[in-house]
Amino acid sequence: MKKFISCLVLLAIVFCSFAFTGCTEETKEIVIYSCANDKRLAEMTGILEETFPEYTFVVEYQSTSKLGSKLLAEGTNTDCDIIHDLSFLTLDALDAEGLLADLSAYDTSKYVDGLVTKSTYLPEVLTGGAVIINTKVLEEKNLPKPASYDDLLKPEYKGLVSMPNPNSSGTGYMFYKSLVNAWGEEKAIAYFEKLAENVLQFTESGNGPVNALLQEEVAIGLGMITNACEQIEESNAPLEILVFEEGAPYSAYGQAMVKGKEEKAHVKEVFDFLVGDFNVETCKNWAPEKIYKDLDFTNEFFPENLKYSDMSNDTTEEKERLLKLWPIV
User: Fold this and answer.
1) Whole-model pTM?
2) What is the C-alpha separation between 266 and 126, in angstroms, rounded?
3) 324: helix, coil or strand?
4) To the nearest 10°, the Cα dihedral for 310, 313, 314, 318?
5) Axis-axis angle for helices 316-325, 185-195 (nearest 10)
6) Structural contact between residues 102 and 88, judged by C-beta atoms closer than 8 angstroms
7) Which H/E stretch holds residue 65?
8) Hey, where are the domains in the chain?
9) Which of 18, 138, 257, 303 is the most exposed place for a label (fewest CB within 10 A)?
10) How do residues 273-317 score in pLDDT, each as one tens digit?
11) Which fold has domain 128-250+305-325?
């Protein structure tokens, strides 16, 4: 009987020990919100899981507008630990609400002068936009290549143009903003109102136009140069990148930690990895546009001597004002 009771006591001690350990051990899960495309997210997740097998990763995609709105609504109580590939403008809005961790201890001297303007997020990539055409679709329809933004208004391109919606996509907004700066507000707004007659769809995501070009749903897309280069390189897609007189609109994207999450050692460890060597490889393999002082990357499919458009006065306040004037519902 004594031996039986001793066994019960021993089992109880073992059970309590396991229960206590399970209750006190922190779950090593990192939640990442990102605006990067599916392929980049799949690659990033795979590398993170290989590099940190002891952690669990939850990576959630949202378009620029939705991700910003989601984080503003959730505040610092969000499940999100790390914000990845979000436009500087949207990060500025989150910073204004006090939602981002202080990153002033990080060395920013490696970035090109003027790129870092806040101490709450770090640069990830710079991405330029262009008018991208599917040469196969144009040839099949016996249509010429457009040579200017005004050409996109021609009736022969009706239903053959795709553009991201500026209200949901940072890519769409940068096209809108660049033409406002180039032509003036009144002319630019009138232009997009007219362009809408030829647009098959204003896509939610900046990736949408290139996807539509690949599916041969449209012949012309206002999209990201890096997306087009990726498809030309990997699948020999019949895409051509056109940069008109006004230059290539561009936007900077960054990475941050939600305020308070930097106190979790495993979150900070992963963030340090993302903004370190991993980001250098991202720029090398996907986004060659210059963000580092001492590093230059090349891509044989990327336009040479790319001329950028005027993106001055690119502030959160100006974006809010211009979006209220966007003429397409």
Assistant:
1) 0.85
2) 27
3) helix
4) -130
5) 50
6) no
7) helix 64-74
8) 29-126+252-285, 128-250+305-325
9) 18
10) 999 999 999 999 999 999 999 999 988 999 988 999 999 999 999
11) D-Maltodextrin-Binding Protein; domain 2 (3.40.190)
